[in-house]
Amino acid sequence: MGDVNNATANSHSTTPLQELEKIANENNLKLGDVEFARHMDKRDPLKYLRDEFHYPKMGDVLNTDPSIVDLSEDCVYFCGNSLGLCPKKTKEYMNIQIDKWAKLGVQGHTNGELPWAWCDELLEEDMAKIVGCKREEVSLMNGLTVNLHLLLISFYRPTKDRYKILCESKAFPSDHYTFESQSRLHGFDPKDAMICVEPREGEFTLRTEDILDVIEKQGDKIAVVCFSGVQYYTGQLFDIPKITQAGKAKGCHVGWDLAHAVGNVPLKIHDWGVDFACWCTYKYLNASAGGLAGLFIHENFQTNDFPKLLGWWGHDMKTRFQMNNQMDLIPGARGYRISNTPGFLCVPLKASLEIFKKTSVEELRKKSLVLTAYLEHLIQKSYQRPAGKAPEDDCDAVYIDIFTPSDPKQRGAQLSLAFNVCIEQVFKELEKRGVVCDKRFPRVIRITPVPMYCSFEDVHRFMGYLKDALVAAKGSLRHVDTHKV
Q1: Higher pLDDT, 419 or 351
Q2: Helix and strand tally (H, E) in the chain?
Q3: pTM of this structure
Protein backbone atom coordinates (compact mmCIF):
# COMPACT_ATOMS: atom_id res chain seq x y z
CA MET A 1 0.00 0.00 0.00
CA GLY A 2 1.35 3.40 -0.99
CA ASP A 3 1.99 6.58 0.94
CA VAL A 4 -1.31 8.07 -0.24
CA ASN A 5 -3.27 5.46 1.67
CA ASN A 6 -0.82 5.44 4.55
CA ALA A 7 -1.50 9.13 4.91
CA THR A 8 -5.01 8.38 6.12
CA ALA A 9 -4.42 5.10 7.92
CA ASN A 10 -4.24 6.85 11.27
CA SER A 11 -6.79 9.57 10.49
CA HIS A 12 -8.46 8.96 13.86
CA SER A 13 -5.39 10.38 15.62
CA THR A 14 -3.71 12.59 13.01
CA THR A 15 -4.87 14.94 10.31
CA PRO A 16 -4.15 14.37 6.61
CA LEU A 17 -1.75 17.32 6.71
CA GLN A 18 0.16 15.84 9.65
CA GLU A 19 0.52 12.60 7.75
CA LEU A 20 1.78 14.48 4.69
CA GLU A 21 4.34 16.23 6.85
CA LYS A 22 5.40 12.90 8.29
CA ILE A 23 5.91 11.43 4.81
CA ALA A 24 7.92 14.46 3.77
CA ASN A 25 10.17 14.22 6.84
CA GLU A 26 10.73 10.49 6.41
CA ASN A 27 11.86 11.03 2.84
CA ASN A 28 13.84 14.25 3.41
CA LEU A 29 11.46 16.20 1.21
CA LYS A 30 9.72 19.55 1.55
CA LEU A 31 5.98 19.83 1.02
CA GLY A 32 6.35 22.80 -1.29
CA ASP A 33 8.81 21.14 -3.64
CA VAL A 34 7.78 19.36 -6.81
CA GLU A 35 9.85 16.33 -5.73
CA PHE A 36 7.41 15.73 -2.88
CA ALA A 37 4.42 15.88 -5.25
CA ARG A 38 6.11 13.42 -7.59
CA HIS A 39 6.93 11.12 -4.68
CA MET A 40 3.26 11.06 -3.67
CA ASP A 41 2.18 10.34 -7.23
CA LYS A 42 4.72 7.55 -7.60
CA ARG A 43 3.35 5.81 -4.52
CA ASP A 44 -0.32 6.50 -5.33
CA PRO A 45 -2.15 3.14 -5.69
CA LEU A 46 -4.88 4.85 -7.76
CA LYS A 47 -2.63 6.64 -10.24
CA TYR A 48 -3.54 4.18 -13.01
CA LEU A 49 -7.11 5.49 -13.06
CA ARG A 50 -6.05 8.67 -14.84
CA ASP A 51 -5.35 6.55 -17.92
CA GLU A 52 -9.02 5.56 -18.00
CA PHE A 53 -9.96 9.11 -19.03
CA HIS A 54 -9.30 11.54 -21.84
CA TYR A 55 -7.29 14.15 -19.94
CA PRO A 56 -7.31 17.45 -21.90
CA LYS A 57 -4.11 19.00 -23.18
CA MET A 58 -3.19 22.66 -22.87
CA GLY A 59 -3.72 23.03 -26.60
CA ASP A 60 -7.21 21.50 -26.43
CA VAL A 61 -8.81 23.70 -23.79
CA LEU A 62 -9.92 27.20 -24.67
CA ASN A 63 -8.20 30.49 -23.92
CA THR A 64 -4.72 29.14 -23.21
CA ASP A 65 -1.85 31.40 -24.18
CA PRO A 66 0.84 29.56 -26.20
CA SER A 67 3.42 32.14 -25.15
CA ILE A 68 2.93 31.08 -21.52
CA VAL A 69 2.39 27.30 -21.58
CA ASP A 70 3.45 24.26 -23.57
CA LEU A 71 0.35 23.30 -25.53
CA SER A 72 1.40 19.63 -25.58
CA GLU A 73 1.26 19.30 -21.79
CA ASP A 74 -1.76 18.19 -19.78
CA CYS A 75 -3.91 21.05 -18.62
CA VAL A 76 -4.76 21.32 -14.92
CA TYR A 77 -8.33 20.03 -14.80
CA PHE A 78 -9.80 21.04 -11.44
CA CYS A 79 -13.44 21.26 -12.47
CA GLY A 80 -14.82 17.77 -11.82
CA ASN A 81 -17.22 19.44 -9.39
CA SER A 82 -18.98 20.79 -12.49
CA LEU A 83 -18.27 18.24 -15.23
CA GLY A 84 -16.19 15.11 -14.92
CA LEU A 85 -13.80 14.01 -17.64
CA CYS A 86 -14.74 11.66 -20.46
CA PRO A 87 -14.03 7.97 -19.86
CA LYS A 88 -12.06 6.55 -22.79
CA LYS A 89 -14.52 3.66 -23.21
CA THR A 90 -17.40 6.06 -23.88
CA LYS A 91 -16.72 6.44 -27.58
CA GLU A 92 -16.32 2.69 -28.11
CA TYR A 93 -19.56 1.95 -26.27
CA MET A 94 -21.40 4.74 -28.07
CA ASN A 95 -20.29 3.40 -31.44
CA ILE A 96 -21.74 0.01 -30.47
CA GLN A 97 -25.11 1.61 -29.83
CA ILE A 98 -25.02 3.65 -33.04
CA ASP A 99 -24.10 0.54 -34.98
CA LYS A 100 -26.91 -1.38 -33.32
CA TRP A 101 -29.39 1.34 -34.22
CA ALA A 102 -28.13 1.38 -37.79
CA LYS A 103 -28.43 -2.40 -38.19
CA LEU A 104 -31.38 -3.34 -36.00
CA GLY A 105 -33.53 -0.24 -35.78
CA VAL A 106 -36.39 -0.78 -33.34
CA GLN A 107 -35.13 -4.25 -32.46
CA GLY A 108 -32.32 -2.55 -30.52
CA HIS A 109 -34.82 -1.95 -27.71
CA THR A 110 -34.58 -5.59 -26.66
CA ASN A 111 -31.32 -6.82 -28.21
CA GLY A 112 -27.59 -6.25 -28.10
CA GLU A 113 -25.58 -4.51 -25.40
CA LEU A 114 -27.61 -2.19 -23.18
CA PRO A 115 -31.04 -3.00 -24.66
CA TRP A 116 -32.75 0.37 -24.66
CA ALA A 117 -35.95 -0.88 -23.04
CA TRP A 118 -34.16 -1.70 -19.78
CA CYS A 119 -30.68 -0.21 -20.15
CA ASP A 120 -31.11 1.88 -17.01
CA GLU A 121 -31.95 -1.18 -14.94
CA LEU A 122 -28.64 -2.80 -15.90
CA LEU A 123 -26.80 0.07 -14.17
CA GLU A 124 -28.85 0.28 -10.99
CA GLU A 125 -26.84 -2.19 -8.93
CA ASP A 126 -23.54 -0.39 -9.50
CA MET A 127 -25.18 2.95 -8.74
CA ALA A 128 -26.74 1.59 -5.58
CA LYS A 129 -23.29 0.63 -4.28
CA ILE A 130 -21.99 4.16 -4.80
CA VAL A 131 -24.81 5.84 -2.88
CA GLY A 132 -25.12 3.07 -0.29
CA CYS A 133 -28.56 1.60 -0.78
CA LYS A 134 -30.40 -1.45 -2.11
CA ARG A 135 -30.87 -1.87 -5.84
CA GLU A 136 -34.65 -1.64 -5.61
CA GLU A 137 -34.33 1.74 -3.86
CA VAL A 138 -32.65 3.46 -6.81
CA SER A 139 -33.72 4.42 -10.30
CA LEU A 140 -31.94 6.22 -13.14
CA MET A 141 -34.02 8.73 -15.05
CA ASN A 142 -34.60 12.35 -16.06
CA GLY A 143 -32.52 15.23 -14.73
CA LEU A 144 -31.91 16.09 -11.09
CA THR A 145 -34.45 18.91 -10.82
CA VAL A 146 -37.18 16.91 -12.54
CA ASN A 147 -36.55 14.09 -10.06
CA LEU A 148 -36.64 16.49 -7.12
CA HIS A 149 -40.03 17.77 -8.29
CA LEU A 150 -41.32 14.21 -8.68
CA LEU A 151 -40.13 13.30 -5.19
CA LEU A 152 -41.61 16.39 -3.57
CA ILE A 153 -44.99 15.64 -5.13
CA SER A 154 -44.90 12.54 -2.92
CA PHE A 155 -43.03 13.73 0.14
CA TYR A 156 -44.11 17.37 0.42
CA ARG A 157 -47.67 16.88 1.63
CA PRO A 158 -48.29 20.07 3.59
CA THR A 159 -51.10 20.63 6.04
CA LYS A 160 -52.40 23.80 7.63
CA ASP A 161 -50.03 23.34 10.55
CA ARG A 162 -47.08 21.49 8.95
CA TYR A 163 -46.16 23.09 5.64
CA LYS A 164 -42.65 24.49 5.85
CA ILE A 165 -39.56 23.42 3.88
CA LEU A 166 -36.20 23.65 5.63
CA CYS A 167 -33.17 24.26 3.39
CA GLU A 168 -29.90 26.21 3.28
CA SER A 169 -30.03 29.91 2.46
CA LYS A 170 -27.74 29.51 -0.55
CA ALA A 171 -29.24 26.36 -1.98
CA PHE A 172 -28.42 25.74 -5.61
CA PRO A 173 -30.85 27.90 -7.66
CA SER A 174 -32.67 24.91 -9.18
CA ASP A 175 -33.36 23.52 -5.72
CA HIS A 176 -34.48 26.90 -4.42
CA TYR A 177 -36.83 27.37 -7.36
CA THR A 178 -38.19 23.87 -6.84
CA PHE A 179 -39.00 24.61 -3.21
CA GLU A 180 -40.61 27.92 -4.18
CA SER A 181 -42.78 26.42 -6.90
CA GLN A 182 -43.81 23.40 -4.85
CA SER A 183 -44.95 25.61 -1.97
CA ARG A 184 -46.89 27.84 -4.38
CA LEU A 185 -48.56 24.81 -5.97
CA HIS A 186 -49.99 24.04 -2.54
CA GLY A 187 -51.19 27.60 -2.04
CA PHE A 188 -48.46 28.84 0.28
CA ASP A 189 -46.27 31.93 0.10
CA PRO A 190 -42.64 30.76 -0.28
CA LYS A 191 -41.49 33.59 2.00
CA ASP A 192 -43.51 31.97 4.75
CA ALA A 193 -43.17 28.34 3.75
CA MET A 194 -39.38 28.25 3.26
CA ILE A 195 -37.00 28.33 6.21
CA CYS A 196 -33.59 29.16 4.75
CA VAL A 197 -30.84 28.65 7.33
CA GLU A 198 -28.12 31.32 7.25
CA PRO A 199 -24.52 31.03 8.47
CA ARG A 200 -23.69 32.94 11.61
CA GLU A 201 -22.42 36.49 11.31
CA GLY A 202 -18.90 36.50 9.91
CA GLU A 203 -18.99 32.78 9.00
CA PHE A 204 -19.24 31.18 5.58
CA THR A 205 -20.73 27.77 6.33
CA LEU A 206 -23.59 26.41 8.39
CA ARG A 207 -23.08 24.84 11.79
CA THR A 208 -24.74 21.50 12.30
CA GLU A 209 -25.94 22.57 15.73
CA ASP A 210 -27.74 25.56 14.20
CA ILE A 211 -29.58 23.32 11.72
CA LEU A 212 -30.51 20.93 14.53
CA ASP A 213 -31.69 23.85 16.64
CA VAL A 214 -34.07 25.00 13.90
CA ILE A 215 -35.40 21.47 13.53
CA GLU A 216 -35.92 21.16 17.27
CA LYS A 217 -37.70 24.51 17.61
CA GLN A 218 -39.77 24.48 14.42
CA GLY A 219 -39.92 20.78 13.55
CA ASP A 220 -43.64 20.54 14.23
CA LYS A 221 -44.20 23.03 11.40
CA ILE A 222 -41.70 21.51 8.97
CA ALA A 223 -43.02 19.10 6.35
CA VAL A 224 -39.73 18.52 4.51
CA VAL A 225 -36.07 18.96 5.35
CA CYS A 226 -33.97 19.08 2.18
CA PHE A 227 -30.32 20.07 2.05
CA SER A 228 -27.49 19.40 -0.37
CA GLY A 229 -25.09 16.67 0.69
CA VAL A 230 -22.16 18.86 -0.30
CA GLN A 231 -22.90 22.56 -0.69
CA TYR A 232 -22.09 23.70 -4.23
CA TYR A 233 -20.73 27.16 -3.30
CA THR A 234 -18.76 26.50 -0.13
CA GLY A 235 -17.99 22.80 -0.58
CA GLN A 236 -19.29 22.02 2.91
CA LEU A 237 -20.18 18.37 3.54
CA PHE A 238 -23.26 18.28 5.76
CA ASP A 239 -23.73 15.75 8.51
CA ILE A 240 -26.32 13.74 6.61
CA PRO A 241 -27.02 11.04 9.23
CA LYS A 242 -27.34 13.46 12.15
CA ILE A 243 -29.59 15.93 10.31
CA THR A 244 -31.69 13.08 8.90
CA GLN A 245 -32.15 11.55 12.34
CA ALA A 246 -33.14 14.89 13.87
CA GLY A 247 -35.68 15.67 11.16
CA LYS A 248 -37.32 12.27 11.29
CA ALA A 249 -37.52 12.45 15.09
CA LYS A 250 -39.73 15.53 14.66
CA GLY A 251 -41.95 13.84 12.08
CA CYS A 252 -40.45 15.54 9.01
CA HIS A 253 -39.64 13.87 5.72
CA VAL A 254 -35.92 14.25 5.05
CA GLY A 255 -34.37 14.29 1.59
CA TRP A 256 -31.04 15.22 0.05
CA ASP A 257 -29.70 16.67 -3.17
CA LEU A 258 -26.51 14.61 -3.57
CA ALA A 259 -25.27 16.24 -6.79
CA HIS A 260 -21.91 17.25 -5.29
CA ALA A 261 -21.67 14.29 -2.91
CA VAL A 262 -22.20 11.22 -5.09
CA GLY A 263 -18.87 9.78 -6.22
CA ASN A 264 -17.13 12.36 -4.04
CA VAL A 265 -17.69 11.08 -0.50
CA PRO A 266 -18.87 7.73 0.90
CA LEU A 267 -22.64 7.55 1.28
CA LYS A 268 -24.90 5.13 3.16
CA ILE A 269 -28.27 6.66 2.53
CA HIS A 270 -30.19 3.45 3.27
CA ASP A 271 -28.52 2.88 6.64
CA TRP A 272 -28.82 6.56 7.51
CA GLY A 273 -32.59 6.37 7.07
CA VAL A 274 -32.80 9.03 4.37
CA ASP A 275 -36.36 9.16 3.03
CA PHE A 276 -35.54 10.33 -0.49
CA ALA A 277 -32.63 11.65 -2.51
CA CYS A 278 -31.70 12.70 -6.03
CA TRP A 279 -28.46 13.45 -7.85
CA CYS A 280 -26.94 14.14 -11.23
CA THR A 281 -24.23 11.96 -12.74
CA TYR A 282 -22.12 14.43 -14.72
CA LYS A 283 -19.90 15.75 -11.94
CA TYR A 284 -17.88 13.20 -9.99
CA LEU A 285 -19.64 10.36 -11.84
CA ASN A 286 -18.30 11.52 -15.24
CA ALA A 287 -21.45 10.58 -17.19
CA SER A 288 -21.48 13.43 -19.74
CA ALA A 289 -23.06 16.88 -19.77
CA GLY A 290 -26.73 16.65 -18.79
CA GLY A 291 -26.28 12.95 -18.07
CA LEU A 292 -28.95 10.67 -16.71
CA ALA A 293 -29.86 11.50 -13.10
CA GLY A 294 -30.55 9.26 -10.13
CA LEU A 295 -33.41 8.95 -7.64
CA PHE A 296 -33.63 7.13 -4.30
CA ILE A 297 -36.61 6.15 -2.17
CA HIS A 298 -36.05 4.26 1.06
CA GLU A 299 -37.57 0.80 1.23
CA ASN A 300 -39.86 2.06 4.01
CA PHE A 301 -41.73 3.91 1.26
CA GLN A 302 -41.86 1.18 -1.38
CA THR A 303 -45.66 1.00 -1.32
CA ASN A 304 -47.60 2.86 -3.97
CA ASP A 305 -49.98 4.89 -1.82
CA PHE A 306 -48.12 8.18 -2.38
CA PRO A 307 -49.51 10.83 -4.69
CA LYS A 308 -47.26 10.85 -7.76
CA LEU A 309 -47.15 11.58 -11.45
CA LEU A 310 -47.58 8.45 -13.52
CA GLY A 311 -46.22 7.40 -16.87
CA TRP A 312 -46.01 4.29 -19.01
CA TRP A 313 -42.45 3.47 -17.96
CA GLY A 314 -43.59 3.10 -14.36
CA HIS A 315 -45.82 0.22 -15.49
CA ASP A 316 -44.49 -3.30 -14.83
CA MET A 317 -42.68 -4.63 -17.90
CA LYS A 318 -44.54 -7.95 -17.67
CA THR A 319 -47.86 -6.29 -18.44
CA ARG A 320 -46.75 -2.99 -20.00
CA PHE A 321 -47.58 -3.99 -23.54
CA GLN A 322 -51.09 -5.23 -22.81
CA MET A 323 -52.03 -1.59 -23.40
CA ASN A 324 -55.23 -1.85 -21.36
CA ASN A 325 -54.67 1.45 -19.49
CA GLN A 326 -54.88 -0.37 -16.17
CA MET A 327 -51.78 0.81 -14.31
CA ASP A 328 -49.69 -2.03 -12.87
CA LEU A 329 -47.29 0.23 -11.01
CA ILE A 330 -43.81 -1.02 -10.18
CA PRO A 331 -43.19 -0.67 -6.43
CA GLY A 332 -40.54 1.74 -5.24
CA ALA A 333 -38.11 3.86 -7.22
CA ARG A 334 -38.79 2.38 -10.66
CA GLY A 335 -42.44 3.32 -10.34
CA TYR A 336 -41.39 6.98 -10.56
CA ARG A 337 -40.20 6.56 -14.14
CA ILE A 338 -42.50 8.43 -16.51
CA SER A 339 -40.88 8.14 -19.91
CA ASN A 340 -38.61 5.58 -21.51
CA THR A 341 -34.95 5.98 -20.66
CA PRO A 342 -32.74 7.75 -23.25
CA GLY A 343 -30.55 4.77 -24.08
CA PHE A 344 -27.61 6.76 -25.35
CA LEU A 345 -27.30 8.56 -22.00
CA CYS A 346 -26.72 5.21 -20.34
CA VAL A 347 -23.55 4.73 -22.39
CA PRO A 348 -21.20 7.22 -20.69
CA LEU A 349 -22.64 6.27 -17.31
CA LYS A 350 -21.84 2.62 -17.99
CA ALA A 351 -18.28 3.59 -19.00
CA SER A 352 -17.79 5.56 -15.78
CA LEU A 353 -19.36 3.01 -13.46
CA GLU A 354 -16.97 0.39 -14.83
CA ILE A 355 -14.08 2.58 -13.65
CA PHE A 356 -15.63 2.92 -10.21
CA LYS A 357 -15.77 -0.88 -10.04
CA LYS A 358 -11.97 -0.96 -10.30
CA THR A 359 -11.78 0.81 -6.93
CA SER A 360 -14.27 2.09 -4.33
CA VAL A 361 -15.53 5.42 -3.09
CA GLU A 362 -13.77 4.66 0.19
CA GLU A 363 -10.40 4.27 -1.56
CA LEU A 364 -11.01 7.43 -3.57
CA ARG A 365 -11.87 9.24 -0.36
CA LYS A 366 -8.54 8.22 1.19
CA LYS A 367 -6.67 9.86 -1.64
CA SER A 368 -9.01 12.83 -1.74
CA LEU A 369 -8.41 13.67 1.90
CA VAL A 370 -4.66 14.03 1.46
CA LEU A 371 -4.84 15.56 -2.03
CA THR A 372 -7.15 18.36 -0.90
CA ALA A 373 -5.18 18.81 2.34
CA TYR A 374 -2.04 19.27 0.22
CA LEU A 375 -3.77 21.95 -1.87
CA GLU A 376 -5.10 23.67 1.24
CA HIS A 377 -1.68 23.74 2.89
CA LEU A 378 0.04 25.28 -0.13
CA ILE A 379 -2.62 27.97 -0.46
CA GLN A 380 -2.53 28.87 3.21
CA LYS A 381 1.26 28.95 3.25
CA SER A 382 1.34 31.55 0.48
CA TYR A 383 -1.90 33.50 0.72
CA GLN A 384 -3.46 33.19 4.16
CA ARG A 385 -4.45 36.53 5.64
CA PRO A 386 -2.47 37.29 8.82
CA ALA A 387 -4.61 37.20 11.94
CA GLY A 388 -6.24 40.55 12.65
CA LYS A 389 -5.18 42.08 9.33
CA ALA A 390 -7.94 43.85 7.42
CA PRO A 391 -7.83 44.32 3.63
CA GLU A 392 -7.48 48.08 3.92
CA ASP A 393 -4.29 47.65 5.98
CA ASP A 394 -2.42 46.43 2.90
CA CYS A 395 -4.13 47.31 -0.33
CA ASP A 396 -1.37 45.76 -2.44
CA ALA A 397 -1.56 42.31 -0.88
CA VAL A 398 -3.71 39.51 -2.25
CA TYR A 399 -5.23 37.17 0.30
CA ILE A 400 -7.23 34.01 -0.23
CA ASP A 401 -9.94 32.93 2.18
CA ILE A 402 -11.01 29.31 1.94
CA PHE A 403 -14.75 29.15 2.43
CA THR A 404 -14.69 25.36 2.62
CA PRO A 405 -14.43 23.95 6.16
CA SER A 406 -10.89 23.26 7.37
CA ASP A 407 -12.09 20.02 9.02
CA PRO A 408 -11.53 17.31 6.37
CA LYS A 409 -14.59 15.44 7.67
CA GLN A 410 -16.75 18.41 6.68
CA ARG A 411 -15.73 18.65 3.03
CA GLY A 412 -15.23 16.63 -0.12
CA ALA A 413 -12.63 17.22 -2.83
CA GLN A 414 -13.53 20.85 -3.49
CA LEU A 415 -11.98 24.00 -2.04
CA SER A 416 -13.83 27.27 -2.59
CA LEU A 417 -11.29 30.07 -2.81
CA ALA A 418 -12.43 33.62 -2.08
CA PHE A 419 -10.14 36.48 -3.04
CA ASN A 420 -10.00 40.01 -1.69
CA VAL A 421 -9.82 41.12 -5.32
CA CYS A 422 -12.16 40.74 -8.27
CA ILE A 423 -12.18 37.11 -9.34
CA GLU A 424 -12.93 37.71 -13.02
CA GLN A 425 -9.40 38.82 -13.90
CA VAL A 426 -7.85 36.09 -11.77
CA PHE A 427 -10.02 33.51 -13.52
CA LYS A 428 -9.07 34.89 -16.93
CA GLU A 429 -5.36 34.62 -16.13
CA LEU A 430 -5.78 31.07 -14.83
CA GLU A 431 -7.45 30.12 -18.10
CA LYS A 432 -4.48 31.51 -20.03
CA ARG A 433 -2.32 29.05 -18.11
CA GLY A 434 -4.49 26.06 -18.85
CA VAL A 435 -6.20 25.81 -15.46
CA VAL A 436 -9.76 24.57 -15.94
CA CYS A 437 -11.88 25.57 -12.95
CA ASP A 438 -15.01 27.67 -12.50
CA LYS A 439 -16.13 30.84 -10.80
CA ARG A 440 -19.26 31.42 -8.78
CA PHE A 441 -20.22 34.98 -7.94
CA PRO A 442 -19.84 37.01 -5.90
CA ARG A 443 -16.40 35.85 -4.72
CA VAL A 444 -15.57 32.19 -5.26
CA ILE A 445 -13.35 30.25 -7.64
CA ARG A 446 -13.93 26.53 -7.12
CA ILE A 447 -10.84 24.33 -7.28
CA THR A 448 -11.39 20.58 -7.20
CA PRO A 449 -8.60 18.01 -7.46
CA VAL A 450 -10.72 14.93 -8.20
CA PRO A 451 -8.83 11.89 -6.85
CA MET A 452 -9.87 9.63 -9.71
CA TYR A 453 -7.82 11.51 -12.31
CA CYS A 454 -5.94 14.38 -10.63
CA SER A 455 -2.44 14.14 -9.21
CA PHE A 456 -0.30 15.78 -6.57
CA GLU A 457 1.85 17.27 -9.30
CA ASP A 458 -1.32 18.83 -10.75
CA VAL A 459 -1.75 20.60 -7.40
CA HIS A 460 1.87 21.75 -7.42
CA ARG A 461 1.56 23.01 -11.01
CA PHE A 462 -1.65 24.82 -10.11
CA MET A 463 0.09 26.72 -7.35
CA GLY A 464 2.71 27.95 -9.81
CA TYR A 465 0.05 29.03 -12.29
CA LEU A 466 -1.94 30.71 -9.52
CA LYS A 467 1.09 32.75 -8.47
CA ASP A 468 1.75 33.83 -12.05
CA ALA A 469 -1.93 34.60 -12.62
CA LEU A 470 -2.08 36.86 -9.57
CA VAL A 471 1.06 38.70 -10.62
CA ALA A 472 -0.25 39.16 -14.17
CA ALA A 473 -3.64 40.31 -12.95
CA LYS A 474 -2.37 42.63 -10.24
CA GLY A 475 -2.41 45.77 -12.36
CA SER A 476 -6.12 45.47 -13.10
CA LEU A 477 -7.27 44.01 -9.81
CA ARG A 478 -9.71 45.88 -7.66
CA HIS A 479 -10.36 44.99 -4.06
CA VAL A 480 -13.78 43.79 -3.07
CA ASP A 481 -15.95 43.79 0.00
CA THR A 482 -14.67 40.78 1.93
CA HIS A 483 -17.84 40.64 4.00
CA LYS A 484 -19.77 39.38 0.99
CA VAL A 485 -20.03 35.60 0.91
Answers
A1: 351
A2: 15, 15
A3: 0.94
